[in-house]
Amino acid sequence: MSAPAPSMFTPAAKAMAEKLGLKMGRANLEEFAATLEELAKANPNIIAVTSDSRGSGKLAPFGKNLPKQLVEVGIAEQNLVGITAGLAACGKKSFGVSPGCFLTARSLEQIKNDICYSDVPAVLIGISSGTSYGALGTTHHSLHDLAVLRAINNITVIVPADNFETREAICFAAKATKPVFVRFGKAAMFNLHKPEIKFAVGKAIQLRDGNDVAFIATGETVIHALLAAGQLAERGLNCRVISMHSVKPLDTETILKAGRECNAVVTVEEHMVNGGLGEACAAVLLQNGMSKPFRIVGIPDEETVPGAQADIFRHYGISMEGLSETATKLLK
Amino acid sequence: MRRKFDMGKIVLSDRDLALKSVHLRKKTLEAIYDAGAGHTGGGLSCLDILNVLYNRILNVSPETFGSATRDRYVQSKGHSVEALYAVLADRGFFPEADLKTICHYQSHMVGHPTRHISGIEMNTGALGHGLPICIGMALAGKMDSASYRVFTLLGDGELAEGSNWEAALAAAHYKLDNLTAIIDHNTLQISGHTRDVMSNEPLDEKWRAFGWAVKVVNGHDYAALTEALSQPAEIGKPTCIIANTTKGKGVSFMENVAKWHHGVPSDAELKQALSELDAAAAKLKEAA
Fold first, then answer.
1. How many CB atoms lie within 10 A of CB A67?
2. Is this complex scored with an ipTM above 0.85?
3. How many residue pairs from chains A and B have C-beta atoms closer than 8 A?
4. Domain finish residue from A130, A161, A190
């Protein structure tokens, strides 16, 4: 019998999640697949394009139930993006679905030219992004995707933190008239939001208020920031937690408000520290004359430590305990 | 699927097209001269193909360019944009005077096709992109039971880009007989002969092996091009037309010379080239 995958959460982190009343949802990947199928049943113009990735993308039921709305291109990511662009140019709402590591590296030129520069309303879905493939190694990690897409004009970049944000992102993408990229992982996610919360692209969601430290996090790291804020509250520190689901366009207003009102800022991302959310936030603060104690928590510019996603997160301090320590040190 | 092209509907005779090609070659050279940059040899090699496409084959005009049922043409070898712009201007997609703005500050007529220009379907210029895009367009047409056809033009040097072969597999897999890929087979690329840079022959056998219906034609023969382009070569298969062309066609000192891939003519060279083309036009008129 194989060893169980290491848990993303320590017993203390699980206890904090319970204390905060957080309930475990399903993987954002599963939420995406269910949402897309639901939308596609109502809109025959929605086409999923896969590169032998329908299984990885949880789209096997989509393919079975809506076979005329799924285009399989085989293991050919450049072709996947080009075909997705051509479908979009002819009136289809095409979703190119492929592991984020291949989608945004091998076919980056197709994203840049065929979709963004040609300005077609195509959607690209980076599945199993970041370090989701964990021990499969660097070939299967996408720790560059936010940086490269931030540097390409005309694409919205969304990194949802939980099932709610994922569903909203996919619904937005299905109606968008411009290119959209959404990336997420395959691990089950805690539900973070209250039912009354509204989602708007380009507008971050504040999950918790506080002025000692602002955690500005994106995607599947947001939960760890929220748990850290819970832990730090027990130590007398009030921390703000912001889910920056839209990496592009960036909610500069919320970043500046955090910079004005909080004593320190910690950004958190499942991405290399070069060119991702942290550097984007730093630029916003500095260009507006704000200098606060500031740390970017992410994957450093080194060969990523071998291990499962949970090992990698823990190793680089993307955990309740790690973020609590970073914030505490920053305030000293 | 649109029926076989009705030869009775031909408005321009082969001689008319030949005269038009002379005019378009002049416009192409003048545009490159004015821009101080451009792709001369490949523009001249594919010009007759473009002339036939836009004047005999494509169901598209400035008035119908927004129509969902128009035929689509994507120039994968986007660097030969000056020839394409000359043809589009001649067809009335934009004023001929716009050709004077190619590569100018704040002109959208940059050195590769962009959708800012009327008549351009997709932004191309990086090689190996046109065929995958056209597969998406052809698939959309099949899904909608639309009658439009999709065409792309590839350079023979461009075929070294692997994405073309990903696409070649997919087009045959999906039996896209509404898709035609034309290869501008001029056998030269920027560094020299394609056979020396990266051999790709036998092209016809390669495309057949990938499941395409293949036709080999003289890429400067209007009747042969018309016949090959007027309908899919075989129901249930995408069509590949290998158009044997001459790089730099129509100007003696540019023909089959690799350095004219993106050579810009000097004053004297432009004068000589235009003079040769005027002589060709006069000869055509005399023969009438």
1. 8
2. yes
3. 101
4. A190
